[in-house]
Amino acid sequence: MPEKKTALVISAHAADFVWRCGGAIALHAEKGYDVTVVCLSFGERGESAKLWKEPGITLDKVKSARRSEAEKAAKHSASMTSSASIWAITPCD
After folding, report:
1. Is the N or the C terminus of the chain less surrounded, counting Cβ atoms within 10 Å?
2. By the 8 A CB rule, do 13 and 43 touch?
């Protein structure tokens, strides 16, 4: 039985993988690769200005919202044809 092919995408911020390699993710997912996206940050500080304006917002809420956005983007990029998972390595607060 042939081994399952995998693809690993490493992204500095959550939105980067969508803009920089969304097409490559979709292509590889279509070819049957299991795609994993690793974000070094969800951009909870610098890329989330709109979220920070919401009443009662906290760091945990911003991180959760950004993670949710990234997961949706990864699944959409993978065209739901293979498993797409997303992991984050974020600095301690």
Report:
1. N
2. yes
Q: Give the residue carrying structure tokens 């979220």.
A: 51
Burial class (CB in 10 A: 0-12, 13-18, 19+), 13: middle
More confident call, 4 vs 58: 58
Cα 88 to chain center, whole Å? Answer: 8
Upper half-sphere CA count for residue 45 (Cβ side, 13 Å)? 6
Closest CA to 7 of 33, 32, 38: 33
Q: Is the entire prediction scored with pTM above 0.85?
A: no
Pull the structure tokens for residue 7.
Answer: 């693809």
